[in-house]
Structure formats: C-alpha cells, structure tokens
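In this section we walk through a basic example: taking a raw amino acid sequence and producing a predicted 3D structure, encoded as discrete structure tokens. The instruction is simple. Fold the sequence below.
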Amino acid sequence: MSEKAIFAGGCFWCMIQPFDTQPGILSITSGYTGGHVPNPTYEQVLSHKTGHTEAVEIEFDPERMPYERLVEIYWQQTDPTDALGQFEDRGDNYRPVIFYTTDEQKVIAERSRQALAESGRFTEPIVTTIEPAVTFYPAEEYHQDFYQKDPERYEDAHANRANFIKENW
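The resulting token sequence is shown next.
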C-alpha cells in the first residue's frame, strides 16, 4: 500500500531530483497546495493572490522508503530558517512547509523539526511549518520532471540551493 507525502521548499523544480533518485519512490508530481483558488495556474500562483505554495507530492512505498527518511531528505533540500521563501525564490508561494497526510506523518514531522532545532546546526530558529494537507493541484505538464527536460536551466535554478546544502549538510 502506497502513501503520499507533500513538501514545499521553494521552486518545485529543485525539489524533484533529490527524492526521484531514492528507492521506494513511485511518483513525484510538481504542483500547488495550501491556497484558496481551485485549479490555479502557474501565473496565478506567481501573482501571490491564490495563497498556494509550490510543492511536490510524492507517492512512496513506506516499506522501502519510510516517511522518516523522506523528512530527512526534505530538511537537506531547504533552508528551514527562512519563512519568506527559499534561496533566490522569494515570496509566500515558496515558503517551506511539510504538509502531513496522516496523524502519524504529523508526529514524525514535528519530532524531526524539534530534533533539528535542538541539533544546533542552525543559529536561527527553525520556521518551517507543519500543516495538514489540503487539495494538491498538479502543475502544468512543462513543470513535471523539469530537471530532466531542461538540465541547464535546472542547474542555474539549483546553484544557490546546492551551495547552501554543501555548506550546511
């Protein structure tokens, strides 16, 4: 039986590849969630008027990829101290959020966030929110698997994130 996990951490282009290469990942979809406009478009989300954030929805086999491990991978792809976006991606549509789909996921995410806060790895507070999952809307097809479709543009978008990861993890 598969499960779904939803993570927001800046541009969804940069959130696919780290999960896509892991065992037990069945599918990953770029999309929008957390807002109040049904079926938003990319342009609407960029306008900051829908309340949505860019996110990825991951379908996974919990026997091969436990949710705890997905959360660990998530932390290593974000700056959990920046509530106003991620890296060069600024605004509420790029805020870091773990959207839980079950009560167990909520407990795991909260425990993991607390451990990260207590680790001393960051000098600023951990501001990533943990919220209940709401409707997830898949992004337009050209956003799906972007790192494979346009590797040069993906590398440009990913450069600052990659430097942060290298320095902090």
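Looking at the output, two observations stand out. The first strand starts at residue 3 and ends at 8. Residues 84 and 92 are 6 Å apart (CA to CA). In the next section we compare this with other chains.
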